[in-house]
Amino acid sequence: MGSLLIAVIYLAFISLGLPDSLLGSAWPTMQTVFHVPSSYAGYVAMTISAMTILSALASPALIRRIATKWIVIVSIFLTVAGLLGFSVCSEYWMLFLFAVPYGLGAGSVDASLNHYVANHYSSSVMNFLHCFYGLGAVISPNVMALALKYARWNEGYRWTAYLQMGILVVCILSLPLWKSGGGQEEQGTEETAGIRETLKVPGVVPTLIAFFSYCAGEATCFLWTSSYFAGTRQGMGKELIASFGSLIFGGLMLGRLISGFISNRLGDRQLIRIGIALEFVGILLIALPFEGYAVAAVGFLIAGTGMGPVYPAIQHMAPANFGKKYSAAAIGLQMASAYVGSTFMPMVFGRLQQKAGIWIMPLYLTVFAVLNISLLELAYRKIRNSAQGQNKRV
Asked: What's the CA angle centered on 121, arms 52 and 312, to 5 degrees?
């Protein structure tokens, strides 16, 4: 029964990935339909992420009071509502109305599932879990590409909503597994710290800023990869351009799949260092001025592969780095910090590329990759020094 519960959790993470890549893959077409500048995608993405931040900040309290299974059910239902809402939008302003349930459906379920897996399973399981997120995020741009070829962008959102409905039905049918698998028994059984107390723990703040930096680069790729090819390469159809939105997600999925097999041997910190080094290689390939799209496409795939283990490794380290007492609040704060980066930095890039050109994307990604690894190393040092200080006092 426990293995069936893990399968359901994996399926829930597919549902998390499905909505995240749709806007970026559809935006080149949506922009022309709504007659708005390309940078306006950032405002919609910002609204979605703002709702997710609120949801993530509420997650420590929800985890203490509500069983994880119900957080999952309600959250998937909200994303279905958001996707169906997007599918009926005929004016740009309407997107903001349905961005509310779209975003609220992501934060709490992400934090609660990460908290549960980080406290009960190995790094390998965490990486495989996030690999399934990448699977969902790869599927939806291709659904959108099919919709653009055979119907309209609206149908891409509607078809993805149907997939979410199927996952929701499976999650509802699997509710008894949570009881038998122990999934709900962890709720409220251990002392958990609040947000203010957790912020004082050594290493938490630089980890939050590092997570912000990671997700700033990741979300910029989510939203602007298709637009990067549209703006720097010539002679491609809109269906092909839309499909490029899946490159970064395919890389994330590949990176997490590989990490799932090696993470228990290498450890979370070493995985992060190797991953970010690989990300730099991918960014270099994206920046090279070759004609055609092949080298840049490989670059995005490699960059995504390098990014792959970073997110799950940071989440999985929370109980070990900060203690189980602080892990729920730390993961909730990490999620909120991540979505702050997702909210504002793609929008900032949208403004920059409007003035300087979208060719600056590799440089923009490099800045955040450097910040990510530098701040994580600072956090490790603070955690190590704090542990040494406690040992001396003992």
From this structure: 40
Q: How far from 32 is each of 37, 40, 47, 145, 355, CA to CA, in Å?
A: 9, 11, 20, 16, 19
Q: Which residue has the tokens 């426990």?
A: 2
Terminal C-alpha separation, the chain:
43
Q: In the predicted model, is pLDDT for residue 183 greater than 50?
A: no
b/e burial code for range 360-382 (CB count within 10 A of at least 16 → b): ebbebbbebbebbbebbebbbeb
pLDDT digits (tens, 9 = 90+) for 254-301: 898 898 888 888 888 999 999 999 999 999 999 988 878 889 899 999
How many structural domains is the chain composed of?
1
Residue 382 domain boundaries: 2-389
* The two structure tokens encoding residue 184: 């709900």
Q: Is 96 domain-assigned?
A: yes
pLDDT higher than 60, residue 191: yes
Cβ proximity of 80 and 165 under 8 Å: yes
Tell whether the torsion through CA atoms of 254, 252, 41 and 80 is positive or negative. positive
Axis-axis angle for helices 68-87, 41-65 (nearest 10): 160
Q: Is residue 131 part of a domain?
A: yes
DSSP at 120 = H
Task: Write the CB contacts of 89 (distance below 8 Å, at least 6 apart in sequence).
Answer: 95, 98, 154
Q: Tell me the CATH number at 275.
A: 1.20.1250.20
Say what angle helices 22-34 and 2-20 make with each other, to 10 degrees. 30
- Domain-located, residue 103: yes
Determine, yes or no, domain membership for 394. no
